[in-house]
Amino acid sequence: MPDQTRPRILAVTNQKGGVGKTTTAINLGAALAELGERVLIIDLDPQGNASTGLGISARDRDNTTYELLLEDAPLASVIRQTGVERLDIAPATTDLSSTDVELGNAENRVFLLKDALSSEVLLTYDQVLIDCPPSLSLLTVNALVACDAVLVPLQAEFFALEGLSQLMLTVRDVRETANPGLRIEGVVLTMYDQRNNLSQQVEADARATLGELVLQTRIPRNVRLSEAPSYALPVLAYDPASKGSQAYMELAEELLARHAKRKEPA
Ligand code: ADP
Ligand code: MG
């Protein structure tokens, strides 16, 4: 009998582009799958990088997250298997870029993803990761409304913390209106370079400002992570011994441990 409890839903969000959201969605997803979790990635970025990076060809994207949100396509009809065991994806195409305009002021417009996920097929997963677009658009708000918690990749670079306050305000808004249980699961430092003073400075600032929210695991800058998508593979399949693979396994373990700890009775 498969476990029929609701999966944990994490939105991978930061309105800055190029900070490692998609890399984290793909590789954290693969690492969780490696640890035995059944994982669904939901590609909510019109660029569809997570879909391409996991080998879903454009031809195999008849039903996508666009149809899921705007045309009531059932979740089961959107899901594709990837080459990785226990890792599935709901792919995206550029169609999704018109969502903000198409939805206009529709009353339920922030609940579209949440509604679409109230599907039996969701219960066959343990973990859902939503790869968000680089903006605080309606798509991102849909992710914040539908998820349990937010995982924020933070690139160890100048101005890294600047955009964060806007994201935190949006999270608070959504918590006060549409999703009272919404939490920040954690902030994960990405493209970290141990030998670089700037990386260390960003880490120190982040830990001083955000405290416990900053996860212990740091994702190093690792060329294997940037190469893997062109082979349509997560880094764990492309180069399991790489620093990138090790870091995402560590991140998966840290998140599972945090989750288990939270579930312990007080
Ligand atoms: P986002 O989804 O936030 O826009 P991506 O995950 O697409 O960011 O990452 C942006 C670019 O940086 C991509 O080319 C990706 O391959 C590369 N990249 C991401 N994380 C790392 C890393 N830890 N080491 C090296 N390259 C990385
Ligand atoms: Mg991306």
Distance between the termini: 30 Å
CATH superfamily heading = P-loop containing nucleotide triphosphate hydrolases
Task: Tell me about the largest β-sheet.
Answer: 8 strands, mixed
Q: Which distinct ligands sit in these coordinates?
A: adenosine-5'-diphosphate, magnesium ion
Low-pLDDT regions: none
Q: Can you tell me the CATH topology? A: Rossmann fold
Radius of gyration equals 17 Å
Structural class, please? Answer: alpha/beta
Question: How are the strands ordered across the major sheet?
Answer: 3-4-2-5-1-6-7-8
How large is the count of helical segments?
Answer: 12
Protein name: Chromosome partitioning protein ParA
Organism: Roseicyclus persicicus
Pfam families: AAA_31
Function: Involved in chromosome partition. Localize to both poles of the predivisional cell following completion of DNA replication.
